[in-house]
Amino acid sequence: MSxxxxxxxxxxxxxxxxxxxxxxxxxxxxxxxxxxxxxxAGIFCLGGLPTQSQSVLDxxxxxxxxxxxxxxxLNCARKIVEQAGFVPYxxxxxxxxxxxxxxxxxxxxxxEEMQVAVEAILDAIKNSQFLPPSGSxx
Amino acid sequence: xxxETSDEKAPVSQDHEETEKPxxxxxxxxxxxxxxxxxxxxxxxxxxxxxxxxxxxxxxxxALAAGVPKHFRTMQGLEKVVVIDGxxNSCVRKIVEQTGARMDxxxxxxxxxKIKKIGPFKPLAYSxEDLERAVEAILNVVQSTx
Lengths: 138, 146
What we know:
Chain A is of the alpha/beta class. Chain A is 36% helix and 13% strand.
């Protein structure tokens, strides 16, 4: 855990509901955070960035690194983070980086899709200690 | 949100042009810095499970905020759009209003249902009772006449 009880790695996940991969970012993000040690990573509020929520902005500044997780090639989470003035240390796209096919939303996900997505996020979190933090573009 | 995995896929139609559009669209917060944000997504998907994809479909708030035209248009064309926030920050409502997107009904779990915000970074700290109340509230709004 970094200062002020802020997770070291700030995850910004799409968690959009219009496609399978969008929803999977939210589910896989939660599972990845559950699997790492407390304080290592947390899922932040993506909606708080374009609305300039001071609490969300402050916590994002306090995190050591930012990881964005998008489902589809639109990369909305990445765009929102960058538009808010932050520079992601790592960006993950489930279609482009993990080879998961974009399709209609699903109520359930196969083990393989979930595992691939979780592993990609875990890799970004666990390898973060070996790379310099990205910080803010401010 | 419980992470359920299964070999049995349950496709839900919406957004994709080749599939049928749902009657009602839902924009949910899904922010995970607090319990109520995560609860918006969990409860919305529970409503989707209960009512089915012809009745409800989920929107992409991130796409709305990022200015993706297709996602904006898709939700505009539905019979009703429900907007759900978890906490007083009301981020989804702000994004909808800032973009001029459609909002026919609005629920804020904190203000309207008095569900306690627990955090930070405790996305799954909501109770089963909170989940049931949230689901019931969304069901009532979805199924009420416009």
